[in-house]
Design a protein that fits this description.
This protein has 79 residues and is mainly alpha-helical. The chain is built from three helices and no strands. The chain has a domain of 25 residues. It holds the Pfam family DUF6489.
Length: 79
């Protein structure tokens, strides 16, 4: 069985009820650029992004579990 879904990233975000983080991303990139331009000594962009990276991976795991649950429920209906 194969399921194909044709959906844009924005439509997927809306469907899942996820917030639009593009303004936040743009603000973070602007701040990173400002600090890089200022030549801040000891500046580490990874430490700035670390909390967001952890949240992103947790979201993807939750989405995968959701899809697996749907597929499992669907396959049990056919029995």
């Amino acid at each position: 069985m194969k399921i194909s879904i044709d959906i844009t990233p924005e439509e997927m975000r809306t469907l899942m009820g996820w917030p639009d983080v593009q303004p936040l991303q743009e603000e973070m990139i602007d701040k990173i650029r400002e600090q890089m331009d200022a030549g801040a000594e000891g500046y580490d962009p990874l430490s700035l992004m670390k909390p967001f990276l952890a949240q992103s991976s947790n979201s993807m795991e939750s989405f995968q579990k959701l899809i697996a649950g749907v597929m499992s429920a669907y396959s049990k209906q056919g029995d």
